[in-house]
Amino acid sequence: MYEAVYHIEKAYDGMTVKDFLKKIHGYSTRQIIRIKKDTDAIRLNGKHVFVVVTLHETDKLVIRLRDEEKDVPLLDTAVPIAFENEDVIVFDKPPFMPCHPSKLHPDDTLANAFATLMKTRGETLTFRCVNRLDRDTSGLVVVAKNQLTASLLGKTTQKEYCAIVCGKVDDNGCIDAPIGRDHEWEITRKVMENGQRAVTHYECLCKSNEYSYVRIHLETGRTHQIRVHFAHIGHPLVGDELYGGNHSILLRHALHCRQVRFITPSDGQEHVVTSPLFDDMHKLLASEGLVL
Description:
Structural Genomics Hypothetical 15.5 Kd Protein In mrcA-pckA Intergenic Region, Chain A; 4-stranded antiparallel sheet; Pseudouridine synthase; 6 helices; alpha+beta; single chain; 10-stranded mixed sheet
């Protein structure tokens, strides 16, 4: 169950509950429909009301959204939690773990770990992944505890990545190149003229003759964006066999989500969560004499 409390200010006097939720707080049409169907979802000054009711200054509006339960196989292995409050859990995902179940990975995913955690706690929350990471990418994954938080954070969460790429890159740069794929069934993406706009900003933190360690901010969020962009400029990620990286040095692509920044809707507070570099990437940098 998610609960949000709003104290109506003068600026919102005269707005309907529906407009206040959609225009001011970003509730989706689907969420509004769920609220309308739940007779206990809206309380205004302690009384049940409908979404068409007009708000006035000093009103107290309470919104409650129930969670939808889903059956997911349980997982014995626990995943470290980097941060948690009433809105989110931020997991520090290891490499080689998918976020969502699939035919190839039905029961060894972060969703399975989440389901196990919920059962241990006696809770029935749905797995809502805000920033999905590829199977081989390690680092921070934000999981929303309710649909409203998932919707809001999906648009506003800022991520910072770090990667080890082949060769010596410039000290900093911006890769602005559209990404797409020739056929829907293809896994790989590539830079192509009629693709979707994709922008990647990077800063080189240290480099040797063989490798560069870079910090990355994404302006857009395309599938495989970091991997495709660095391969495009001739510096594929170490270990990224799919896009031309050296797979003999590292058994996965050297990419880690090291920081997430977000504002949780229940309290309006900004949170910055960080994750240390995973061991395999750290050892590779150390072997090159690169100091973090």
